[in-house]
Every structure is written in C-alpha cells, then in structure tokens.
Amino acid sequence: MTQLDYKTLQKLDAEYHLHPFNDNAALAKKGTRILTRGEGCYVWDAEGNQLLDAFAGLWCVNIGYGRKELGEAASKQMTQLAYYNSFFQCTTEPTIELAAKLAELAPADINHSFFVNSGSEANDTILRMVRHFWAVQDQPQKNIFIGRHDGYHGTTMAGASLGGMKGMHKQGGLPIPDIHHIDPPFWFADGGDLSEDEYGLLAARRLEAKILELGPERVAAFIGEPIMGAIGVYIPPRSYWPEIERICRQYDVLLVADEVICGFGRTGQWFGSQYFGFTPDIMTVAKGITSGYIPLGAAMFNDRVATVLKEQGGELAHGATYSGHPVCAAVALENIRILQEEKIVERANSEVAPYLAQRWAELGEHRLVGQARIAGMVGALELVPDKRKRAFFPERGTVGPVCRDFALKHGLILRATWDAMLLSPPLIISKAQVDELFDKTWKALEETAGALG
Ligand code: PLP
C-alpha cells in the first residue's frame, strides 16, 4: 500500500503516465480517479468513494471483484512454477488443462486454442493463422478479411485494422492492406421504416455484396463481434447472424466471432454466438476468461481449421513469450470453475437478466432515452433530443459524458460512447443492486435533462 496522498498520486500520474484512449493533456488538468479496492460489484477510490461498477471494469470482471480463490490460484502456481513457455516442445499443466476445458465449453467443434495475452493479440493471431490456412491449401490469394465500420477488435496493427474505428485508423496509417469493411447493423440509426428483422437481412447482405465485389476466391474470412460493444452496444436483429453464417458458408469464407466481450456469460449464454444461434469457425476470447484478474486471451479454431494448421501448416511462425502462461492459465481455470460451480452464467440468465431487462425498459421511458437496448447482461441507453424520432443530438457525443459524470457523482460507473450510456455489470449483480443501478441512472438522466434546459 502506498503512503502517498491522492494529490501526489495524481501529480505523479499526470507527469509520468500516458493513459490509453485519453486526451492526456485534458486528463492531467482534470486529475485521474485512482481506484484502490474492489468487492463484488463495487469499487472504492483513494478518496474513499464507493462506486457501483455497472461496467465490470472494461466489460471483464464477470465474477465480480475480490474473489480470493483467484489470488490463491495465482499464488500457488507462482510458487510451484512461475513460468515456463510453450515453445521448445514444452508446456505446463494448467495450460493443457485450460485448452481442454475451453474445448469442452466452446460451441460445436471449436476445440483448439492458441494462447496470447489479450483480445487484440488473439485477433492478430487469427489474421495470420487464417491467411496461412488458405495459403497452405494453394490459395494464397484468399487473404482478405472483411470487418465492419465502427467495429472494435483491439489496438494492435491488425486488431485496429480489422476494427473500423476511424479515429484509430487515422493514427498510424491503418488499415493494413487487404482488410475491408461493411456497414454495421444498427437499426436505430440506419433501419428506416424496415422492421428489425427485415433490416437485419439487409445489413447481413452487405457482406454478400462485398464478397461478390472482391471475388469469393479472394475473401478469407469475415470477423464480427456478436454484439458491437465499444461503439455503443449495437445489438443486431435476430435475423442478422444466421444470414451472415449462410453467406459465409455459401462462399467458403471463414466466420470469426470476436467473443472478447460476449464470451464467458455476458449475454446470459456462455458465448454470444449461442445467444444469436450461429456457429463460427473461429472465435477469439479474452476479458471474461479470467474475469480480468490477469491478462489472457485465446484464438480458438474448429477442427477443420486446426487440422489444416496442424497437418499442413508446418512450423507456426507465431507466438509470444507468455503464450500459455501457467499463472494466467491457473487463474482462468479457477475463474471457470467458479463460473461453473456457482452456475453464475445460468443464474444471471434466468434470475437477474429478466429483471435487469424490465428495469432497463423502465429507464427507456425517460424523456431523454430514444432506445433502451439490452441482451442478457449488456445494454445501452441511447440518449436523444427528441424521443419520438430516431435521431442523434446534432453535436453527437456531448450529452453522454455529462450523464456519465452525473452518474459518477451518485456513485455509479456507466460508460458513455457518444451519447449512449453503456451497461455491462458483473454477472453476479443482485436484484437489489439492479434497483440501485436504476435509481442512480434515473437521477443522472434527470440531471442531464435539467442541464440541457
Ligand atoms: N475485441 C473486442 C470485441 C473488444 O471489445 C476488445 C477490447 O475491448 C478487444 C477485442 C481487444 O481486447 P484487449 O483490450 O484485451 O486487447
């Protein structure tokens, strides 16, 4: 524990620490919030404020804060064998056990894991592995990935390129070659007079049009988040993913589900693909795999892809010092044990999610809310100037942060993307805490409406 006071810590932070996804000059003036402790769904800052974390850190603390078992699993593994790699024809016990456990949990025949340290690296891994998969089958030209504008697949060169965030593309000359994007499925802004399901088909068929434009013999894979998180929790219509799957099968394009947010229970199902009823060939996972207690990600392949990589792939020229780190694997195993033994995903789905959906819909009644969308334990409130119209504020992104700051004042952490208030609480949130979430969000909405005049 540090002996430094809050102001000194803030000063040191401003001077020596560059924050991701922040205007660092503005942050230095405002001063960072410094978190010191977490328990269940709450965190405390260094000034002693208790905050209900309705965003689970960064969509990741699925089992909640303060589970000592995870610390004990890390400590036990560190003491026994702190590190060994999976290069040199070696590996470690927890790494093997985790790979087997993931094969048991993952849908269909997605049975093979390649471990990395984050979601971004997992997406980098699939880019390289998928291109290799086609190349060793005499189709090196089948190397194009299609993602979505406004999608988020991480922050590395490949991750940011697969994603479609304009601000990220602007910095560093992205996307890298042979990555294309189609428009995202966002009925609220783009659906016009179509029903959600009609629009879902239309949005999915943009993929078919893009494949035909590029030539199916050139398109290696399509990648998508089952629910587009970072851009504002875009929950696609039910018709979207099955149609995407049909198109991928028709043109022999591999289907990659980026499950970094949705995986490990976020939608009330173990994986987002199960929530939407489609079967990917490949998925990437991170975040909830350890509930954020330690960094870990995995690229997971089905039998078809893995068999080619194993039997025709030769040496995989890819890997990181910490691929399959035993301590991370031990923590992931303990996290999954808790999720399974305490039936956290199933209970969230059957007990809390319906109540959360009901209360979220009540928030949707507020005059500032144009749409209250929710899928299991992830949702968004789209704040709008006129509730009767599906249109954004003229200066998009000015109102969300105001609402976020009012929520913070009341001890509630929600994230704002543009003018959408994003929700992604620990899966263990109770009904009483859902009520607390409701009351604080309503107050924040009222104060935001007041500030708008
Ligand atoms: N994919 C999705 C859908 C994400 O939301 C994120 C991070 O938020 C990533 C990938 C990148 O994961 P990481 O930040 O662990 O690199």
Automatic annotation (TrEMBL):
GO molecular function, one term: pyridoxal phosphate binding
Gene3D superfamilies: Aspartate Aminotransferase, domain 1, Type I PLP-dependent aspartate aminotransferase-like (Major domain)
One Pfam family in the UniProt entry: Aminotran_3
InterPro entries: Aminotrans_3, Aminotrans_3_PPA_site, PyrdxlP-dep_Trfase, PyrdxlP-dep_Trfase_major, PyrdxlP-dep_Trfase_small
Membrane-crossing segments per the record: none
Key words of the record: Aminotransferase, Pyridoxal phosphate, Transferase
Lineage: superkingdom: Bacteria
Family to which the UniProt record says this protein belongs: Belongs to the class-III pyridoxal-phosphate-dependent aminotransferase family.
Descriptive protein name: Putrescine aminotransferase
Lineage of the species this protein comes from: Bacteria, Pseudomonadati, Pseudomonadota, Gammaproteobacteria, Lysobacterales
